[in-house]
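Reply to dn_fold:

You asked what the input looked like. This is it:
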Amino acid sequence: MKKRTEKHARGEEPKLAGIERYNSNIERRASQTGPLVFSAFAAVVVFLAALGTGFVLAGMFTVEGLVVALLVAWVATMSVHIAMQWEKVVVFRLGKFSRVKGPGLYFTIPFIEQTALKADQRIMVTGFGAEETLTSDLVPINVDAVLFWMVWDAKKACLEVENYYNSVSLAAQTALRDAIGRASVSEVAIRRNQLDQELQEVIEERTSVWGITVLSVEIRDIVIPAELQEVMSAEAQAEREKNARMVLAEVEKDISAMLVDAANVYEENDLAVRLRTMHLLYESVKGSGGTVVVPSAYSEGFSDAALDKAIDSLKRGK
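and this is what came back:
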């Protein structure tokens, strides 16, 4: 426990496979006791019926009648079955594929037919990951992902692969490692959506022959070594500072061009300079809420005569 705490303090992710993490959570699944209860009920009913029949025929309860009733009940439990709403049952006859049954009630011939597989056709969620996987630029990273998939063909899931659940998990993990190995660490961190789509297509190609379809793949977490995180952070800060300086230079360039244009206007018209001066003084007084001492040479511009002259000059200029 102490080592685990120290790893969290250093910012390291515990090295647990995605499947183990999901299995460590509390599982909440639909009840699977229905078939068992039905089988027990059928066995009891058949046993009582056979025992009652033996009593009627023999006029008493005998050991032979009891044994026969037990055998009949056992055969009944091997013959009558039910499949849940989300299940497809693959039935073999003498070792060969016979049919796919379910959901609901179905029958098999004892000792001749066997239930080879009960395929769950609900959406399955499988966690998988790639630990200490090298990227194309030789950086070891940890990636966790979640796979959403379902069985659409129970026959293929039974005949084409030994254990379809584990096979899907291993295929997803292999595809994830291969995708990471073909990309740089920056591409893995930035192109999450593209990586999800790529993984879905690759896994779908491998699992479609098993009667399994992949609905989606989602990258949950990407853990980069702490040393590289500092380097990438410094690089990102330098890039942002570079962009900020470039933007500032562009703004300074635009401002200088505007100032040159304004200077040309002021150079050709002294009255424009005086009006600009008056405007600046007004803004300073309004902003400060105080008083400003204006030289006498400038105060003449505030007189009514000067203002009328300025207006006439502007009209003539137009």
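The domain at 17-26+122-224 is CATH 3.30.479.30 (Tetrahydropterin Synthase; Chain A).
Hope that clears it up.
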